[in-house]
Amino acid sequence: MDEVEVVVAHSQRATLRVGDVFLKVDGDPAHADVEVRAMAMVPVPTPAILWREPPVLAIAAVPGKALGVLGEPSSASPAAWAAAGAAVRRLHDAPLPPWPGRALDDITAELDGECAWLLANGVLPAEVVRRNREIAGAALRPWTPAFIHGDLQITHVFVDGDEVTGIIDWSEAAPGDAMFDLATLTLGHEERLDDLLAGYGPGADRDVIRAWWSLRSLKASRWLIEHGFDPDAPGCEFDVLRARMQEP
Questions:
Q1: Is the peptide bond before 55 cis (omega within 30 degrees of 0)?
Q2: Which domains can be identified in the chain, with CATH numbers?
């Protein structure tokens, strides 16, 4: 029998790997509902669904390896990053899913709440929080909704050579701001943005992508801390926020 590998585990969900099968266990069945529906709709490669028995969703491993990991340089080629950009563009150009996305007012209120928590608990210097909240404001504007992945972390895009072989973890898919996906994929890998956009094509707004780097990092920090992750690890969210202090 293959060994059981714990890929990720926290109070909300866990993912186990047994050979070439991933078992995703989630206390909220709505997450798996969205994942299954989204993967059936999107024009990009996704894992095969093997079976579903709530609260467990079994999916097949995709070939290749992740585009990279947060906190380490990506070894993927510029062509692989461009291929990822082209795949994301196909997703964003696809017909919208029929379920709603996050409202701008809700995102703004959540961001302000997270900034207040960071300041009240002295997690980061106040000037870092305030400067990044200022930068994040550029993302808080009306957008034309696109079909977004919603959690397009670098570890969720798999490549084999210069080809995208699969995009995983679709539970946050919804109509939303296309720039959010581009920012999430390049978070902590800002030097690869040009390669990504070479494949994505026209229409990307670098100022808004930069704003989403700040916004996502501010908004995620408390959750990461409370679930046993370290946003202060080298190259991770706190470094992303500190890097914005060096910009004009």
A1: yes
A2: 63-244 (3.90.1200.10)
pLDDT digits (tens, 9 = 90+) for 118-176: 999 999 999 999 999 999 999 999 999 999 999 999 999 999 999 999 999 999 999 99
User: From residue 2, how far is each of 9, 20, 51, 53, 204 by CA, in Å?
Assistant: 19, 9, 19, 21, 44
Q: Which residue has the tokens 């909240």?
A: 133
Gyration radius from the chain CA atoms: 18
Q: Count the neighbouring beta carbons within 10 Å of the beta carbon of residue 129.
A: 21
Tokens representing residue 201 in the block: 């094509």
Q: How many CB atoms lie within 10 A of CB 133?
A: 19
Amino acid at 150: G
- Give the predicted TM-score (pTM) of the model: 0.96
Distance CA 247, CA 177 (A): 24
Residue in the block written with tokens 């798996």: 32
